[in-house]
Design a protein that fits this description.
A five-stranded parallel sheet has the order 2-1-3-5-7, sandwiched between helices. Helices cover about 50% and strands about 10% of the residues. It starts with a helix and ends with a helix. The chain is built from 15 helices and seven strands. About 35% of the residues are buried.
Length: about 350
């Protein structure tokens, strides 16, 4: 190759590399900051490796209902809610696969209301766009995203190129400010109190798309196999909710899930308000989710339940123990102050 040609080739390579770096930086800046309502991958990846005892998965029923810091205060178990809004089981499988690259939980708790979802829900873009870049994210896009969203999920600027007028200092600071672990541990605080008007829980219908349900079960099979291969206990719950399916639907779900993974525990808690100590007049955020007060009670109950099932806190570094203690105290203070104000 002639010297001039080699020089041109080198310039071309440098140009492509610079363009790739600039596009990557632009994508980071233009993509909105996301640190609540699920898909909190940046904070999750800042947790010390192999420090999480319990990994919670699922949809908003998971990230509104479980506060890992409150669970830690009650049981000593560390946890993280790696969930996403209206997240289907197919996406949950890829979340688990990615999450296990840095953590080795003793137990995975999957909130199972997503088995009643459609094939695709409303937040595929957020659920997948905030996953770490890599082969698993690419495979998740091809497996679990609507075809018309795949281009934007592979190339962020397709979705976010027109956000430049909305940019804030926080958006730009992402380039130079490293992410950090936070006290939320994937939990999202909501404090509305749902007025049940003295009624009883109401009935809701699941998706009638049988093809979607079968795909959800296929995803669960992969989740169960992954947990089995890693020696992780698997629990599927239906969390306490005022919006409930019929007993027959829950019976069918339990039969289908235990048929796929007999070793998994299925816990139907939809109507277990009294057992958990929940007050439906003040512990619900809406017809589906718990509010902060309800999440505190449910998280304490979950921690004690997991201890009863044989889960035990792993040894933590002095620094991480102090961080968890501080985080738990933050949420306990918030709870106690809110209770004092209400009384």
């Amino acid at each position: 190759m002639k010297k001039a040609n080699r020089k041109d080739l080198m310039h071309a390579v440098i140009f492509v590399m610079l363009a790739a770096v600039l596009i990557h930086c632009a994508s980071i800046i233009m993509r909105p900051v996301h640190n609540s309502y699920g898909s909190t991958w940046d904070a999750y990846l800042c947790e010390p490796e192999d420090s999480i005892d319990v990994l919670f998965l699922g949809s908003s029923y998971a990230y509104c209902d479980w506060n890992p810091e409150i669970m830690y205060a009650a049981s000593g178990l560390t946890g993280y809610v790696m969930a996403g809004s209206e997240q289907t089981p197919s996406i949950t499988y890829w979340y688990l696969k990615q999450a296990l690259k840095t953590q080795s939980p003793q137990v995975v708790v999957m909130e199972g209301s997503s088995f009643f979802f459609e094939m695709y829900q409303n937040y595929t873009q957020i659920n997948l766009d905030y996953m770490p870049r890599g082969i698993d994210r690419a495979r998740a896009i091809l497996d679990a995203a609507e075809p018309d969203k795949r281009l934007g999920l592979f190339f962020d600027l397709y979705f976010y190129h027109d956000r430049w007028k909305e940019l804030t200092r926080e958006d730009i600071a992402k380039l130079i400010t490293p992410a950090s672990a936070d006290v939320n541990k994937g939990y999202t605080y909501v404090d509305n109190v749902y007025d049940t008007k003295g009624s009883t829980p109401y009935h809701r219908e699941p998706s009638k798309d049988t093809a979607a349900y079968e795909k959800h079960l296929e995803a669960f099979k992969k989740i169960a196999e992954l947990c089995r291969d890693k020696g992780i206990d698997l629990i599927v719950t239906i969390n306490p909710t005022f919006s409930q399916c019929s007993p027959e639907i829950y019976d069918k779900l339990e039969k289908d899930l235990t048929g796929i993974a007999p070793e998994a525990d299925f816990m139907l808690l939809a109507n277990s308000f009294d057992e958990i100590g929940l007050d439906i007049s003040r512990d619900l955020y809406d017809g589906g989710h718990l509010n902060f007060h309800g999440a505190c009670k449910f998280s304490e109950w979950t921690g004690k339940m997991l201890l009863d099932k044989g889960c035990s806190p792993r040894e933590q570094t002095k620094e991480n123990t102090a961080a968890w203690d501080d985080g738990a105290q933050y949420w306990l203070n918030l709870r106690d102050n809110a209770q004092s104000a209400a009384s």
